[in-house]
Backbone:
């Protein structure tokens, strides 16, 4: 990729991030019920929280387990529960959240 193309891509990514920041209150209102369900399923567990952030459709469950240090059984159960709650889209082997969440989504819960 040329230097000019990289600069354009960086600018576009920055604009996207700013738009997401401005749109977050509307997204939160739209997805309120699903976000509450997600909070209830994940709770204060740091490995579960980290796992959820890795569910972008690009990571296999094995990769998520390795990166988040979550127990295999807990991850399998979490993926099943998220699927039943309509919080995942696509292939459960490559889990992807059906909603967007900000990077500070779990901050007010604290971790255990």
Residues:
């Amino acid at each position: 990729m040329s230097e000019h193309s990289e600069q354009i891509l960086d600018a576009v990514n920055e604009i996207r991030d700013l738009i997401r920041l401005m749109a977050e209150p509307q997204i939160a209102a739209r997805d309120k019920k699903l976000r509450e369900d997600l909070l209830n399923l994940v709770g204060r567990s740091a490995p579960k929280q980290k796992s959820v952030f890795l569910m972008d459709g690009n990571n296999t469950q094995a990769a998520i387990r390795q990166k988040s240090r979550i127990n295999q059984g807990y991850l399998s159960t979490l993926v099943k529960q998220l699927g039943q709650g309509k919080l995942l889209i696509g292939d459960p082997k490559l889990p992807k959240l059906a909603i967007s969440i900000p990077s500070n989504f779990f901050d007010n819960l604290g971790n255990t």
User: Anything to note?
Assistant: Strands lie at 88-89, 96-97. Residues 3-30 form the longest helix (28 residues).
